[in-house]
Design brief:
Strands 2-3-1-4-5 form a five-stranded antiparallel sheet, with helices on both faces. The protein is an alpha+beta fold. It is built from six helices and five strands. 24% of the residues are buried.
Length: 173
């Protein structure tokens, strides 16, 4: 590749690294073109799956301010740039790797943290954002319900006690 072409590729990769909410590195050796196309479709529109030279990817990552990916950029590498829900993308990669043993997840980067393959698997095991938000909302609602019941319990108990005393006095009279 000529120098201007390399500079252009580095600039494109740097832009992708900067724009991505997360980056996953995979080894794609042994996957056919239809399999890679299928993976790209499953990842969705907000995610790109790019094959790049490791040296250029290292330079681009450093220019984007991402450190620690060098050890994962060895051998044939494909980079998954994720915009949006990166947990969902990790799930897609995990599930695809289960059915296509040639795909190997090497590592990743999200929220200023570098993850190894096991870390990416743990991300994939997380519940989706909507599920986590609904659980938080449910917990908050439960706390409010218990608080309301607590405030209502004391006056209710007082009324029941007064009614019981009134009935007792009526029977005694």
């Amino acid at each position: 590749m000529l120098r201007p072409e390399k500079a252009e590729v580095i600039a494109q990769l740097t832009e992708q690294f900067r724009d991505a909410d997360a980056v996953y590195l995979t080894e794609y050796r042994g996957l056919s073109v239809p399999q890679i196309t299928d993976l790209r479709e499953k990842l969705g529109r907000d995610t790109s799956y790019t094959v790049a030279k490791n040296t250029l990817a290292r330079i681009a990552a450093k220019e984007a301010g991402i450190e620690g990916l060098d050890e994962y950029l060895k051998g044939p590498s494909a980079i998954t740039f994720v915009k949006g829900d990166y947990v969902e993308a990790a799930k897609v990669l995990r599930d695809f790797a289960k059915t296509n043993k040639q795909l190997i997840v090497k590592g990743g980067y999200a929220d200023d943290t570098v993850y190894d393959a096991e870390g990416v698997t743990k991300l994939a095991d997380l519940e989706s954002r909507p599920v986590l938000l609904s659980k938080i909302a449910y917990s908050l609602k439960a706390v409010q319900t218990k608080t309301a019941q607590l405030f209502v319990a004391l006056p209710t108990k007082a009324v029941r006690t007064v009614d019981a005393l009134r009935e007792k006095q009526e029977k005694a009279a």
